[in-house]
Amino acid sequence: MKHTFYSLLPLFLLLDLVIPFLLAPTYPGYRHTRQVMSVLGNRSAPFHTVYTLWLLFLGTAILLTCAQLCPLLWDRSGGLSLALAAILIIYALGGCILSGLFPVSETKAMETLSAKIHGFGSVLGFLALTFAPLVVALFYFKGRQTGLALCALACFLLALVFFVLFVMADKPRFAHTVIAWEGLWQRLTLLFMYLPLALLCVRGVQ
User: Fold this and answer.
1) How far apart, in whole angstroms, are the C-alpha atoms of residue 153 and residue 165?
2) Fewest Cβ atoms closer than 10 Å to its Cβ: which of 3, 81, 117, 151?
3) Comparing C-alpha atoms, which of 94, 57, 89, 52 is closest to residue 70?
């Protein structure tokens, strides 16, 4: 049981991408390409409690993983270990736990205190997690594992591109273009943020 969450984190990250596809059919009119995943947690969604509980669980799992994984990385690089710990903690608290406790409205409008807290937490969490692939890449470069480092670096660059598209998606000037597909950009951003973390959990400090 020593490394339970450490070894299971790749599964949890995969579930974070899959669960919206399982819940969406219960929410008439929901579109994966156009709407962000957190819309499934608004109080109008039939199974909003399920998605809220999932975010709280995922945040807790990431914090437990951080407590197990980062000390294993310390011997190779204390600085990178601290950087990864900070990233995971910010994402777990802001992007998961705060986002779960304070749901967004159906339209993502910042009209309520809950929506504002959700928006602040999710933006902070996403910004932090964007740099997780870069930290993983530096960790592998430091260990002279060039192939793994380049894979993580490619994920960082792709995550950065999709994150920029995600931020641009709700701008009025892009309303009738493919850039407006913020749901798609969010999922692709998370995918490339998650992949290096999953790789690190699978391989550890090998």
Assistant:
1) 19
2) 3
3) 89
φ and ψ of 111, to 5 deg = -100, -20
In angstroms, the Cα distances linking 188 to 83, 85, 148 are: 23, 23, 20
In sequence order, the 6+-apart residues with CB closer than 8 A to the CB of 35 are 182, 183
Length of the chain: 206
DSSP SS3 for 153: helix
For each of the chain's 206 residues, which pLDDT tens digit applies?
A: 455 667 889 999 999 999 999 999 998 888 998 888 988 888 888 888 999 999 999 999 999 988 888 887 888 888 999 999 999 999 999 999 998 888 876 655 566 787 788 788 888 999 999 999 999 999 999 988 999 999 999 999 999 999 999 989 888 888 888 888 999 999 999 999 999 999 998 876 55
131: left (phi over 0), alpha (psi -120 to 50) or beta: alpha
Question: What is the spatial distance between Cα 39 and Cα 46, in angstroms, rounded to a whole number?
Answer: 11
* Residues in CB range of 107: below 8 A, 6 or more apart: none
Single-letter amino acid code for the residue at 88: L
